[in-house]
Specification:
Layout: H1 4-25, H2 29-44, E1 48-52, H3 58-66, E2 71-76, H4 79-88, E3 93-95, E4 108-114, H5 123-133, E5 134-145, H6 153-172, H7 175-187, H8 192-199, E6 204-211, E7 216-222
Parallel strand pairs: 1-2, 1-4, 2-3, 4-5
Antiparallel strand pairs: 5-7, 6-7
Length: 223
């Protein structure tokens, strides 16, 4: 069960260590994932982009770099995290609850969300709200963790549930928060199940692409 209020409180406490902790835990792979997302978004040649749950702005900054002529907005429900996005150079930031966004219908060409949908109170309701603010024919892109299958399944599960929380706890002082986040990864739909969920919320042509042997996945769809 997702607990957005718990996540908000936890992120507010670790905002100053969140970015470097992510890089350490993924051994820098998260940087490569965001670069790939930036290239995909650039191919769509959008004029307006909304990065939901932007956090410290890592993805928004990468997309800004690859889409310099687009108007970027980064939104997050945690002001402490968003302050780092602003300081880092995200062009426009707003404190926004993704479940009830203050934007008009059909406002954006592209909407991205990285490692954020998983922690929202209702995945279907959040996706429907994202579909609402996208222009007809606009693009959705979700980047989030998933679980590898095959030979890597057991070793990764051990790392995710036993090793990662200890390392993150040492770096942030919030071991419980990372134990919670690790648990949500196992509950979050991936692959065909995520495609089905996205399509059921008003999108079409949902596709999934695993990254790093399935540790993370990119999902795209059309509004």
């Amino acid at each position: 069960m997702q607990d957005p209020q718990y996540v908000k409180q936890a992120f507010s406490r670790i905002a100053d260590r969140y970015r470097v902790t992510n890089h350490v835990l993924s051994v820098g792979t998260d940087i490569l994932w965001r670069k790939k997302v930036g290239r995909i978004v650039a191919e769509w040649q959008p004029k307006t982009i909304l990065d939901v749950a932007t956090g410290t702005g890592d993805l928004a900054l990468e997309i800004q770099k690859q889409c310099p002529d687009a108007e970027m907005t980064g939104s997050d429900f945690c002001p402490e995290m968003l302050a780092y996005a602003t300081e880092s150079g995200v062009n426009n930031t707003m404190v926004v609850d993704a479940m009830e966004m203050p934007f008009e219908d059909d406002s954006f060409d592209v909407l991205t969300v990285a490692f954020g949908l998983r922690n929202m109170g209702s995945w279907p309701d959040a996706l429907k709200e994202m579909q609402r603010v996208l222009k007809p024919g606009g693009h959705l892109l979700i980047l989030d963790f998933s679980l590898p299958t095959g030979i890597l399944k057991e070793p990764y599960s051990f790392y995710l549930n036993k090793v990662l929380p200890k390392i993150a706890g040492y770096m942030t002082g919030e071991k419980d928060a990372y134990e919670y986040l690790a648990g949500t990864i196992g509950e979050f739909p991936s692959g065909a199940k995520m495609e089905e969920l996205i399509n059921s919320c008003g999108f079409s042509d949902a596709k999934s692409a695993p990254l790093s042997f399935g540790v993370a996945s990119i999902y795209t769809a059309t509004a």
